[in-house]
Amino acid sequence: MSKGTRAMMMGLLALGVVVLGFAAYVRLAPSDRAVWHVSPVTGAPADCVVQAAADSARLACVLAAPPAEVLARLDAVAMATPRTQRLAGSVDEGRITWITRTRLWGFPDYSTAEARPDGMGTRLDLYARQRIGSNDWGVNAARLGAWKAALGL
């Protein structure tokens, strides 16, 4: 084997190790509940329209049902979403955070919902954001839109 071939093989091996290391980090890095399980409330109007940013999305609605019922329905919708698991919170707490991972790489996105009394109904605030990168290409807004539709809003 020539020096050039050996150097190219070593370079490919090093690249493979870097790619596998990044893939392992994306899938295995712990999710700190103190960082991700935070209130999604921003004071934005509860117009029930998904508001998208480059790396996140928000949604706020006022519903007639009690907070526990609203959050339980949303939890069922979220848990039925592929590659989604609960990170923290509960219906009793009034706030839940879920992790949804992309199919190929397993990039984590975090969605937090909080339901609380608001006049004669319940204000539901949702905040979906990515952990890695600076642009989610509308994935978080699409997820919140799908959850909104599944709730019949």
What would you say this structure looks like, in words?
- By secondary structure, this protein is α+β, with helices and mostly antiparallel strands.
- The protein has two domains: 1-30; 33-150, TATA-Binding Protein, CATH 3.30.310.
- The protein has helices spanning 3-28, 33-36, 67-79, 139-150, and strands at 51-52, 56-63, 84-90, 95-101, 108-118, 121-130.
- The chain has a six-stranded antiparallel beta sheet with strand order 1-2-6-5-4-3, with helices on one face.
- A hairpin with a 2-residue loop joins strand 5 (108-118) and strand 6 (121-130).
- The longest helix is centred in the N-terminal third of the chain and has 26 residues, at 3-28.
- It is elongated, with a radius of gyration of 20 Å.
- The N and C termini lie far apart (65 Å).
The gist of it:
The chain is α+β, with helices and mostly antiparallel strands and 153 residues long. It is built from 4 helices and 6 strands.
What is the topological layout?
Blueprint: H1 3-28, H2 33-36, E1 51-52, E2 56-63, H3 67-79, E3 84-90, E4 95-101, E5 108-118, E6 121-130, H4 139-150
Antiparallel strand pairs: 1-2, 2-6, 3-4, 4-5, 5-6
Overview features:
2 domains; 6-stranded antiparallel beta sheet; 4 helices; TATA-Binding Protein; elongated; 6 strands; alpha+beta; 153 residues
